[in-house]
Amino acid sequence: MKKLTINIPDTKSSLVKQILKELGVIIQTEKKVNVSSYRKKLTNISVWSDEDLKMFEESTTAFESLKPQQW
Q: Which domain of life is it from (predicted)?
């Protein structure tokens, strides 16, 4: 299946959609983004402090200090 984007004049939109639907074309409507809800989601994103990041740095150095056992 292929995806096609076309610009249709408002006066011919319903006619073109009707013809395309009769031909079996699936018409997807554009999703409107609600800016206020998007901003609200962004405000809920947590920020990591330097103390939080320190734990990752310590883990990395601990990993590097491990030596594989020799058999």
A: Bacteria
